[in-house]
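Re: the pair you flagged

First of the two:
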Amino acid sequence: MASRSGVEKAAILLLTLGEKEAAEVLRHLPAKEVQRLGAAMAQISDVSRSEVTEVLGWFMDDAERQTSLGLGSADFVRKTLIEAMGEHQAAGLLDQILLGRASKGLESLKWMDPKAIAEMVRQEHPQIVAIILAYLEAEQSAKIVAYLPEEVRGDLLFRVATLDGIQPAALQELDQVMERQFAGSSRTQAPGFGGPKVVADIVNLLDARIETRVMQEINTADEALGAKIQDLVFVFDDLIEIDDRSMQELLRQVPSDQLLLALKATEDGLRDKIFRNMSQRAAETLKEDLEARGPVRLSEVESARKEILALARRLAEEGAITLGARGGEAFV
């Protein structure tokens, strides 16, 4: 059971519910989480009674939802998502999870490949692209930005940062444009998205070289806005702020070779915190490997750190860990 990720445990929990109950849970989750859980449920095919018992115990300890009994299969996922979202709207997600086909419409951009979206919006007005980036989840928007031409990235994220909501009618019009383009269904979004936090979330997930260039361009355009975004960006050194339990859970899921790269040229304080939250044997082995490891490219170090930060944010979203400081809401 220790090898199961938080998403897999949540998927097993949903599979122990009846279809209607699981659908009620999914109904209240954001699109990215529905896709992640749906994919996990579709892949789980053989769960032992002892694993179910452990998951239920984990669930009760974390005080989340309810139980019955079910079995993972494509049929279960199909019926559950249709019950949760309706047959028409679930069709695109089912295509993505079970059949691998693209969905349609503005809302269904959430299920599309980021590279395909980048190609689609390449010729659109920058403000339209900025609205789309603000509308989507940060993880997907970061990938889209990476596929867009280098010379437009900074301007686009500057526009997202200064976007102070959008009139529902304007968003509905954009939705209709997407509907005509994909022959899909329209959905509207209330105003109140965009802003520095949205850009910080996207920047957190960008490749380090892209992040540096984008932030330089934003700072050139508006130094105060750039500083505000930078204050919200959660960087590798901020991991020193998370509690020991969260650090231990994070380290359990970080590959040893990735951690080794990430710790090159890391501040002593963060290194010591990491060593303290490992077994003595693992810490000694890691220290020896760090001493024996020769010079490595800075890009490799930055890439490893980005992957660990992405894992930390995913675990925080799942409720498995708590990010302190700028990475999440603090507890007092």
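Second of the two:
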Amino acid sequence: MNVTVETIAPCKKQLRVEIDAQSVDSTFESITAEFRKEARFPGFRPGKAPKDMVVRKFDKDIQDEVKRKLISDHYRKALEDHKLDVVGPPDIEELQFGRGQPLHFLATVETAPEFQLPEYKGLPVTLESRQVTDQDVEKAVDLLRSQRVEFKTVERAATAADMVVVNYTATCDGQPLTDIAPTAKGLTEQSNFWVDMEPGKFIPGFSEQLVGTQAGDQRAVHLTFPPDFVTPQLAGRQAVYAVGVVEVKERVLPALSDEFAHSFGAEDLTKLKEGVRRDLENELKYSRNKAIRTQLIRSLLDRVQFDLPESTVAQETRNVVYDIVSENTKRGVSRDIIEKQKGEIYTAAAQGARERVKVSFLLRKIAEKENIGVSQEEVARRIQVMATMYQIPPEQFVKDLQKRNGVVEIYDQLASEKTLDFLQAQAKIEETPAAASA
């Protein structure tokens, strides 16, 4: 086999491969023999049909199999001999092929980038010095109390801390809002609608004009929809709401007691607060680790520049676009709005994809240099955890992963996590005083 390698672009090479005629003919012989073993012809026992008869009937299939085997075997050997780290499938062009002559083919491949690692040990990280305080625990417990809030009807004027039950109809220039925005039925008319009196919880400026009202009051509420209002046809328009107050409801929080703690599965109030503190400490630890790793990655990205294989970037861009669109869809963003923003989505995705691809090559090279590996047991444990999380039998989960090369993805994820663990252990972390909370 004769191979020449030419760099035709950053991260792109061409391999010109020549396989001698003797190897081609011997492969034809072996493949033909395999076809002959399986061939079935009238009047001949299996495997005993004449060779020329087998060749006449299966010539194209034999040629295709010979070509596939020769190119596959010699392509892999060429990569090994020339130590090429290829990403993605090759583009193969057959230049010459036939019995009694050498096989020539051209393989265009994208390769992993070649670069010198920057200094990655002792990277600087700055963090605010934070710890969970008693005040943090009390705030978290208050949030739990708000989950058990009850609403008591009161015979008094409404305050900004209350809920007010109202009936309303809305017009714009004397017309119902639905004449302007047909989908805005809920904004046009409602009965027994609960309005949170805290400013900004409903339409901006609505609840503020109901402060001081009582059950039975009628009030005209004048407001202007914000320029970025969720219903575009109403954005920036002025409206008048005819509001009738049905009830004023006062929030009643449960008392801090062991009974309250029991409603969250805690033994008593002390145990509840201890559990809340542990949860807050775990959240703080997670956020600190995330902040550390974000800074480490940014530091690595800023310290070295290199070309990236475009096919890898393109695939990652598609992945990021899919994630962005899926997230927006879950948030209720309409397909029309997503379509109008597709240019901005793609631009953001492309930038994010380039950085993610760059980080993956950096972490991979650090892992190689530091001999950071992932064992089969670690992969198996992660698969077990994921199968349990998705409530899929582990055997079925493994089959699903194998269909889309998912086991390799899990291996890469674990390797990246272990490499980031290594970088974090080596980092120089400076603690700064926490900013005073407002």
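The chain is about 50% helix and 20% strand.

-B.
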